[in-house]
Amino acid sequence: MNKDAYIKKNFNISDSVLTLVDMAEEALAPQFKRAQEIAEINQLKVMKAFCDNRVSEAHFASTTGYGYDDLGRDTLDKVFAQVFDAEDALVRHNFISGTHTISTALFAVLRPGDILLSVTGKPYDTLEEVIGISGDEGNGSLKDFGVKYMEIPLLPDGSPDMEQIRFTMTHFDIKAVTIQRSKGYGDRPTYSPQEIGTVISLVKELSPKTVCIVDNCYGEFVDVTEPTSFGADLAAGSLIKNPGGGLAPTGGYIVGKSKYVELCANRLTSVGIGKECGASLGFNRALYQGLFMAPHTVLQAVKSAMLCSAVFEKLGFDVNPKPYEERHDIIQSIKFNDPEKMIAFCRGIQKGAPVDSFVTPQPWDMPGYQDQVIMAAGAFVQGASIELSADGPIREPYIAYMQGGLTYESAKLGIMVSAQLIMGK
């Protein structure tokens, strides 16, 4: 029995879907080759950091209690800093999410009376309550602590408004600028590290003391450089996304200038303790191995996103990015303009997952989000976005966001099941 016959028999995939996917793969061959080259460069960067910092079995040892002199923890910080071309890093299993790492960076840098400026439009949904844009007064937001917030809308094409940034930086004393690399739940381009660097250069030209903080979630290892290579003072993300390689069971990272990373460590633990304490509790091995696997795992996710884009564009939907566009994160969005089709897509991705494939995702009121959200994720690590998943808020124009895939082959199956369901609709 050949591959197609097996898929038809066991997953009820039609000949039309199989043909559609085969044609998409053939057309994407040049894009797959370029993604492979990027992954190889990033793998070599990780290898060099491991070698330069003399990573050994001793770094995987567990510590308890205060975690004084945890060699594995401290060396992992150095490895991350080198890989991300940064002065220092704070890599900890204590970070519960990307939102937590970014929140830590914001609270570390900002003080009462300071102004925080978002230059990439509305921030990701879960940061609204952190900043104080939404949520109850007195809940501990930046607004509660006297931090003011300003926001510059994006231009119609989704790019940062450089003229408005120049005007705002000239007329206000901005303490920190936040830049969101990925589109999040928006409908705009994801920015390359170089494009982020252009924004940072303008900010620093007008106000050298302003701290530039990048939400780097979903973007790590998709390019051969990171925002810290282009002047970002801090960049943060989650280890259950790209840099955890599918092996990290939890955690997050912050990389950047040493003085700001130190402030983040003080915020995570306490002033006077900073990075000196924090037991690794046996997490070190998974975090090291996850980082080692990350370039290859991100490659699987990028190829999966490309295939999804090509297939659903052929089915008549607006996709972002387009199949042959340059990519700067692992997210693929599909605009359905129909809640039922959006939900059907997510349910198809769920059926293609290795875990909980029998579950039927339903929209629900998720903490930190203003709209109901549907989430499809059959993951070995709960909520791990580097594993195949699809989600989105139930609001117009009903965009689903697919990301991840530990293996291209398994993600390809999820895409085929979703296409089958959509064609049925």
Architecture overview:
The structure is a single chain. The protein has helices spanning 3-11, 15-27, 29-52, 71-83, 98-109, 128-131, 162-171, 193-206, 258-268, 284-314, 339-351, 408-424; strands spanning 88-92, 115-118, 148-151, 176-180, 211-215, 234-238, 252-256, 318-320, 332-335, 373-377, 389-393, 399-403. The protein is globular. By secondary structure, the protein is of the alpha/beta class. The model has no long low-confidence stretch (mean pLDDT 95). The strands form two sheets. The protein has a seven-stranded mixed sheet, sandwiched between helices.
* Percent helix: 40-55%
Number of strands: 12
Order of helices and strands: HHHHEHEHEHEHEEEHHEEHEEEH
Give the helix/strand class: alpha/beta
The amount of beta strand, in percent, is: 5-15%
Distance between the termini: 30 Å
Unreliable runs: none
The geometry reads as globular
Q: What about the largest sheet? A: 7 strands, mixed
**Widest sheet: strand ordering:** 1-7-6-5-4-2-3
Topology, please?
Blueprint: H1 3-11, H2 15-27, H3 29-52, H4 71-83, E1 88-92, H5 98-109, E2 115-118, H6 128-131, E3 148-151, H7 162-171, E4 176-180, H8 193-206, E5 211-215, E6 234-238, E7 252-256, H9 258-268, H10 284-314, E8 318-320, E9 332-335, H11 339-351, E10 373-377, E11 389-393, E12 399-403, H12 408-424
Parallel strand pairs: 2-3, 2-4, 4-5, 5-6
Antiparallel strand pairs: 1-7, 6-7, 8-9, 9-12, 10-11, 11-12
Helix pairs in contact: 2-10, 3-4, 3-10, 5-9, 7-8, 10-12, 11-12
